[in-house]
Amino acid sequence: MLVLNDVTKKFGNFTALENINLEFNHGVYGLLAPNGAGKTTLIKMLVTLLFPTKGEILYNGAEITSLDEEYRDILGYLPQEFGYYKNYTPEKYLMYLAALKGLNKKEADKRIQELLRTVGLEEVTRKKMKKFSGGMIQRVGIAQAMLNDPKILILDEPTAGLDPKERARFRKLLTHLSHDRIIILSTHIVSDVESIANEIVMMKNNTILYNDTVSNINNTLAGSIFETEVPFSDVERFRDNYQIISERQDQEHMTIRFITNDQADEKWTSVTPTLEDVFLYVYEDDQTLAGRVS
Amino acid sequence: MIRKQELLKLTKTPTIPLLIIFFAALNVVIVMSNTHLKKDLSVLTNLVETYGYEINEDMMKQFGNDYQEKVKWVNKIAPGDDKTYKHPSELLSDDTVRRENTLSDSEKQKLLKYGVIEQYHRTAQNIDDFYKNIDLDSSAESIIKMHGFTGSAADEVRDQYQTLDGRLDELIDNGEHKNLFFKGSLYEMHSFLFRYIGMALIFELMILVVLITAAVTNYEFEHRTALVTYTARRGRKLIIDKLIAATIANGVVMFALIGVTLSAFFLTYDYSGLWNVPISSYFNAEMPLPYISWWNLSFIEYVAIFVLLMMVSQLLFMGISFMLSVFLKNTYLVFFAFVILLGLGILLPSFAPMSSQLVFWLYYNPFAFILNPHLWLMGNGPFTIYANYEIVTISVWVFLLGLGVSYSIYRFHRQQLQ
């Protein structure tokens, strides 16, 4: 079990994270927040790149920094910006990382072939990575994170650069892997985690806002999400009065999904809230999302 | 596997192999710049082959007899019977001979060769008188006046020259000065090898060592792979593998560049028969005051110690570069910071007052250390005259940088890696 107790991280006078308390058991955890909310800082502390200013991070009751190699031995990590040696082949690069992860050559050889097949790179194992697309590089990154068959797999924005087909394959892979390990998947894309995460951790204002199952989080907006058809001429007025979640332009009117606690109008249809609704509602005032909502 | 991979990364950095090739070629060009002396130098190697290098009564007698034969030949080929030449140089400087051009080419060549032999014969005859007249007290006073030493600094110079006087007596007793060697005042082979070629090697290796150490240490940060590599099981201990890989790479580069340069030198200039000549031989002298080594060292021993000191000084530069790399994480910044330190190390002693002992202490730094490699282990130059200057500088800095490198590794384990 991976536990964060009252973890605070400051950079000079800036507080990136404050009093974070979390517990991770087996399963997929979706760390969901817009860019700049502190997801990467939290992850970098979990992988021992950064150290908490206050508080402690424990794995099975022991401080992860004092566990040192023992902790990193069960850790797989894909950073947000996955760096690679452009003149290396994926096979050679993974072989080097396997050595750093303590695998001997024989087991590394076998594992690398297996993983490159899993991520669909078996055709290009000996091609230099400088010729790879962003998606292919990201798949090399996923493969390296799983080299040591980690008990804790931490993936920071892993689907960046992947096409829809690759995303689907990736989600399937994570579901398959999640039975006997902790998977922490940081993302700002709701669909990456909505269907596969056992729990969602949402962060706001440098702290944890929700840490619950998808359905429980969705239920926080139960009875407040509606859809209605609004004539084009009334759209502006409607926007001024309600918090819009999404808009779809049809031939003669606009179909608007919105949130309100007012008495329901007969023209409104109450709909089941989704994680996307919660996400857009929670981060409504967030500058990163401003462009998406309006 | 990890260290091998760290080394292999260097081969993917084209600048370093290209620089090695460039420096090796440059050194060969420098070595070749004195090939016009080869013919003259071979006169001495032939003399040593005939008489041995040790100057003693028997040797001088035989050398003298043969020399007289050469003088006879000079008089035989000289035009006209009215003048007798006591030395080949008299005929060489005779304008009549030059004007009338009566000598054949082979005679001229032989005469020139005899002129060189004359230099060695005359010098060999004058050694004892010269050493009797060396007055280190007055040398000390001239040095004090020249550099403007006052107070305790001036006393320190006097004391050191006094100590050197004792060593000079020992050197004379050992007869270290009375050995044939390439005549320094004519060919300056000591300076050529240990100063010009030596300095070129030292600065070239310095550039390579700084670049290699910084490139290996910073590789993950410069390729944005640090987040992956330092979170693997090996973790931040990888920095130790990098330090070992840098040491191996620097060692190989040092052996290669020094090897190529010295091989080119000794294949070009024939030192056969001279390997065991004491480095303090009077013939080696290039300045009014001859080289006085603090220990009785042969030429080959001096070369070996020179190479060793050169390599150890590079290890010091490696230590400095490693420390800078751990904190700066960028090869160009490390190189720039190193150049600033180099400048400080060289310039700082010149800011010290000439009345204080501080001026001597400030020379005990690795950058000032490499400025006069041809004087290493020699009692020459007022600032680094001390017999233990080299060993103290090296030992103190090996210790300090050992601590510094250990501290950097300790700090790196606790650094926040963004």
TrEMBL record, chain A:
Residues 2-230 form the ABC transporter domain. The keyword Oxidoreductase does not apply. One of its GO terms (molecular function) is ATP binding. The keyword Nucleotide-binding applies. Pfam families: ABC_tran. Keywords: ATP-binding, Nucleotide-binding, Transport. Belongs to the ABC transporter superfamily. This is ABC transporter ATP-binding protein. It comes from Lentibacillus halophilus. The lineage of its organism: Bacteria, Bacillati, Bacillota, Bacilli, Bacillales.
Automatic annotation (TrEMBL), chain B:
This is ABC transporter permease. It comes from Lentibacillus halophilus. Keywords: Membrane, Transmembrane, Transmembrane helix. The chain crosses the membrane at residues 16-37, 193-216, 243-267, 299-320, 332-352, 389-410. The keyword Zinc-finger does not apply. The keyword Transmembrane helix applies.
